[in-house]
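Students often ask what a 'structure token' actually looks like in practice. Rather than answer in the abstract, let us consider Bifunctional NAD(P)H-hydrate repair enzyme, a protein of 533 residues. Its sequence is given first.
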Amino acid sequence: MHSPLRDQPDFASSVIVTAQQMQAVEATIFAEGMPVAALMEKVAGKVARWIMQHFPRDRFPLVGCIVGPGHNGGDALVVARELHHRGYQMLIWYPFAQVKELTAQHKAYLEYLGVRFTQASEELNFCDLLIDGGFGLGLTRPLTGELATGIRTLNTGTVPVVSIDLPSGLESNTGEVLGVAVQATHTLCLGLWKLGLLQDRAQPWVGQCHLIPFDVPLTALQPALQDQPPPCCLTAAAAIARLPLPRSPIAHKYTAGHALLIAGSRQYAGAALLAAQGALASGVGMLTLVVPESLRLMVVSQLPEALVIGATETAQGAIAALPDDWEWDRYDVVACGPGLTIDAASVVKAVLQSDRPLVLDADGLNSLAQEDDPKGRLAARTAPTLLTPHVGEFRRLFPQPWQAAASPSLAASQAAIAAHSTLILKGAISAIAHADGQLWFNPDSSAALARGGSGDVLTGLVTGLAAQLAQTAVTDTMLLDAAIAAVWWHAQTGRAIAAQQTELGCPASELAKQLPRVLAEQLQTANATAPVW
Ligand SMILES: NC(=O)C1=CN([C@@H]2O[C@H](COP(=O)(O)OP(=O)(O)OC[C@H]3O[C@@H](n4cnc5c(N)ncnc54)[C@H](O)[C@@H]3O)[C@@H](O)[C@H]2O)[C@@H](O)CC1
Ligand SMILES: [K+]
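Now compare that with the structural description of the same chain:
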């Protein structure tokens, strides 16, 4: 089993915490002797250097700061002081009378230095850059009054905004906007990733997110996690470690995994092709594809590498049943769903009853959602199951955790635990939840992937990887490992295509085609940057 605490070289840069956990970490650091003011200097110094590097003074000479009453405001004032000394012209909007002592001290010193303060937020509209030090972890209630009005106006402008720790107004655990929030172009998250920043709903406010590490010691982190596996960001290292590489030099096609894909209908023939292309790109040894008989010849002509079986079909052209004397044990992993339509529900039932590791997607999920007790059905399976819903499919399948949980990713985690399954909740930042409570997020993705068919490619890819991983052992975490590798690989490919062809240039067939090239580039980069001992 992969333990994030053990197998990631730089654990602190991928772990994700709640506000309460971060506050517990900070309390330990301070209790053990680190002065609060010293940590603020260290962190704000790093933020100032990041800003000077990305927003040089010659192009961004006038910098405005939103300064709140707590230590987020204190950070902003330290950044303002450093930028002032480097020749930036600073303008501070400081709408609070009551502030924390350290923040008040920094304010006094800036006044002594002659930095300009204003009560009129509109003045910030004329700046070249804004620094948002309104609120961070300490936000407890919705923003109101003058502050809310000011932020609303600033959001209508086009000035780049760097938020410190969190965009002010964003709830740090759920990513919800409390009243109004600063719409940042960049967020510099301090120390450890905050859960709220990884939620899809937060993305329009967060902009590009960067971690500013401040050397959080593991001894301070571990008690705050209370022995629970914390959510983690997917890293290249974590994904690459889970790929079926290197391949055995004496591998043959039957030792490189046999994947079965049950997909397609007369209405959605392309879904079967795209899922199969994703599976073939994974390097799987053998791919068998079950499609409605009327699609068989077309599919064979498009996918000469796959073994294609034509199944009897319904009047609407959906798969009616698997062939007689069907032998499940020929296959290491089964994927079922892309393009099936819900007319193929009886096939989905049969697949769920099989003893094979299963990837259930699209209409596989929709058919399951129509059963009485989907969770119980999944929990009763004897082999591991991976579900790959987008939000709409998830909501239909698991309405209860969806409504009750504070965020979609927590709902995914609860559903995975209850259904004894692994789950990829697909979105702008896909979340991967495992039955043992592990939760992963993939922050490095691209809106280029928001295209029909991109999910089918992912289903094929994850299935092909899982079939290869199954050669070592069929374990509870096999599908989790395949999901981590596939989500990362799929997203990196979307990013690479977007970089060359814009976010508009990534149709799903192109995505499938580029998967091998992008993996090779990623592996080269990872090897080039690996530490030499
Ligand atoms: N403690 C640490 O280890 C570090 C903290 N740092 C910074 O400190 C921040 C946390 O500081 P704080 O705990 O002071 O929290 P904040 O700076 O986020 O603000 C909390 C203050 O705002 C008030 N407040 C909350 N919601 C409000 C609302 N809607 N309207 C008006 N006032 C409201 C609270 O009563 C409190 O006084 C972090 O986000 C980070 O930016 C950094 O200096 C680095 C180190
Ligand atoms: K902030």
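One point worth highlighting: The radius of gyration is 26 Å. Ask yourself how you might have guessed this from the sequence alone, and why that guess would often be unreliable.
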